[in-house]
Specification:
By secondary structure, the chain is mostly helical. It has 14 helices and no strands. Helix 3 (40-49) packs across helix 5 (75-86), helix 4 (58-71) runs parallel beside helix 6 (94-100) and helix 5 (75-86) runs parallel beside helix 7 (110-126). The longest helix has 17 residues, at 110-126.
Length: 245
């Protein structure tokens, strides 16, 4: 049955394949999975058209997506369950978290990583006492995608419609990774500092001032995107003075 379901999903994607070598080559640089080269609107459309197993109950659908996630070698196929749940966040329960937290083990590219973190941020918002201990474990993982997820899952774009964890929690996950050597972790830390600044501008500016000389260049660039020109210039000058001496 699994092979039939997997074949249905991958065949639906292959039917939409078009000759787009430039885009396909771009995608192939970001992943080791097999790439069909479908652009995101096309993948969204395939998911929205649905599959026969959508008629199953929620647990059976979750089990099916889990098997597809763990089995398929097609990049676009792994995007489908992420889009499915992103369009149906209202159905996400603890059972989904127990299954989907294991999906991070399959992640090997930034696109799947960030789409998964968007879902993890919803789990964290709804079930903080269940999810936060896992994020703390990931924060110390040797797997860079887990370390990135431990921070990116806290604030997935600051919004008045969302309830973020406390500033203390967010910074407690960011601080151990301030000098992480992995470029994607560095970007994730910078991104979260930028979003945290949207929520707590005064406190995050103080945090940045305290750590400005520690931040890798890419983290600093992301983290200071929303600062005032005056504050950003002042912090850049401090970094420049440190390099000169």
């Amino acid at each position: 049955m699994l092979l039939n379901l997997l074949r249905q999903v991958e065949d639906a994607l292959r039917k939409r394949e078009r000759h787009d070598p430039e885009y396909k080559a771009f995608r192939e640089k970001t992943t080791k999975l097999r790439v069909l080269g479908l652009r995101l609107p096309v993948i969204h459309e395939v998911e929205e058209r649905g599959f026969q197993f959508y008629a199953m109950d929620a647990l059976e659908v979750l089990v099916t997506w889990d098997r597809i996630w763990r089995t398929s070698t097609v990049h676009e196929a792994l995007s489908l369950p992420l889009f499915y749940y992103r369009h149906r966040t209202e159905i996400l329960e603890r059972t989904h978290w127990r299954v989907m937290k294991g999906w991070i083990d399959r992640v090997e590219n930034w696109e799947h990583a960030d789409a998964l973190c968007a879902l993890y941020s919803i789990f964290l918002e709804r079930f903080p006492t269940v999810v936060l201990p896992t994020l703390k474990q990931w924060n110390r993982s040797r797997n860079p995608w887990k370390r990135r997820a431990s921070v990116v899952s806290t604030i997935y774009y600051a919004s008045p419609r969302r309830t973020p964890p406390s500033r203390k929690v967010v910074l407690s996950l960011i601080e151990p990774l301030l000098q992480d050597r992995d470029a994607y972790v560095q970007k994730g830390v910078g991104w979260q500092l930028r979003e945290a600044y949207t929520l707590w501008p005064r406190e995050i500016l103080i945090f940045l001032e305290s750590h400005v000389l520690e931040l890798p260049a890419i983290t600093f660039s992301y983290a200071t995107e929303k600062l005032t020109k005056t504050d950003k210039t002042r912090l850049k000058e401090r970094r420049a003075n440190k390099r000169r001496h």
